[in-house]
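Schema walk-through. Below, the input block comes first and the output block second. Nothing else is stored per chain. Lengths vary across the set, and this one has 559 residues.
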Amino acid sequence: PPPLIYLYFAMNSLIFCKLSLLLCTGTVAKKQPNIIYILSDDLGHADVGFTNGNVKTPNLNRMAREGVLLTQHYVQQVCSPTRGALMSGRYPIHTGMQHEVIYPGQPWGLPLDETIIPQVLKQYDYSTHAVGKWHIGMHKWAFTPLYRGFDDFFGYYLGGENYDTHKNGGGLDLRSDWFDENGKVVDELRWGLDGQYSAELYSQHTVDLISRLEDQENPFFIYLAYQSVHAPHMVPQRYIDQYASHIRDESEKVFAGMVSSMDEGIGNITRALHAAGLAENTIVVFSSDNGGNVNCVKKVTSSNYPYRGGKRALYEGGVRSPSFVWAPGRLAPGRSDALIHVTDWLPTFWSLGSLQGELKPKKPIKTKKLDGFDQWLAISEKVPSNRTEFLINIDPKPVSCGHRVPHGGIRWGDWKLILGAGGPPFGWYPAPTLDERENLCKSDNYSYTELYNIKEDPSETRNVSHKYPDIVHFLTQKLHAYNATAVPLGNKPHDPASSPKNFNNTWMPWLDMGEETPHIRHSEGSGYSLTKELWLRGNQLDERDLEGEASCTDWFQGM
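--- output ---
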């Protein structure tokens, strides 16, 4: 047949495919979507296959390929601030979470006058479920998930623990929380899960949740915050064995296995969605909470390459997260280069849950002024984003194994300004010409001005502050304006009364234990200061992890 016939059929096939997608997405767009937010911990930009990493992540790769890859998705440089910003839709300088993280036994958290995602979605009849890591407050019950809008919780309150024993500092912190028939919170401590790997527990719990929610009429929100791949690095041997042929270093094999374990679980979750007939009306967002940890550890196993720096740094490697949105019934495959910040998800989910404002909340929702924007149209239809800038952070104090001076950063258009040094870490990990000393806390280059054009120089190799003094001045004034809105740091010193020894070797909201508390079940089976011991425990490290990093101990002097 003539070539024109081929062209005719090809054009009609293309039109049919586009029409089918339009009809499909148009149908589900009239329904409130189920929403799942999956947050990895300390995952570097190059630690996944869909960003050209060497780790085996077939499920994440498939979801990124079928969904919309977010090429400019930004988070905070460390854990608690990211989680607080995600939940509240507000920059850490506006919630008091701009400095460090919540270490074990410190009595502070995301302020209770912040309205967070589950509280918003509950007003639109969503059921709300939290799985995995919490880490935005646990010294009082009021700071824990069920008192902040979640219907149930399975996971841990602290920032890190052993993946198998589920203990930190000798205390168990693995629990199932739910409301009993009288509306009272039940806190069940899960002693019987000793020896079961956390990533597998959290994945299976989410699969079971989906099965349980399959027949409910109202939509659901699941916040799945994996422990993976935070220290301590450990994983069942079967995941390590996948890398026997092409990774020689044992530490790197373990790290890669941890990523693959999480990937396997996420694959099980998507299969559960398909099996339940829920995939077409579910939106899944994947992200990391900060860059990979490449500083003040004996062995670097994560990689943020080609981006500079990592966890704790203001450079791209610390705050630019591998991310995508997977929504087979709503999104055509593609990519979005829109500037998206972690604070954007609250207003975005609010818009989705309310069907872009068509549905009215059961009760008026009061929030403080949000720093985030509704990004759904920028993601789904590629319309220009409402966001043209974001505050990276402003921290008036030094950071353990990080900045030694006050520091701040801002992204405006293609430009990025850093005051007070972008690191440490300063380097690129790994890089062929990397000086191994770059991974030590030894640089004296602390207080200076850095300006980068991120579009032209995403690896931040050329500081052009001397070439564009007017832009430096303009962005410095913007930083000053942001700083004028900052609230005091929320950090509080460690409280010895929090010791798990006081509560049958478990971590509990210790400031409330003398008052009326939830029903606790044991399943069978002043100035801010930070000590080296507490830092190690909070990061699930020990002295052996710092061998060769002796200079890092200097970070704990006088803080």
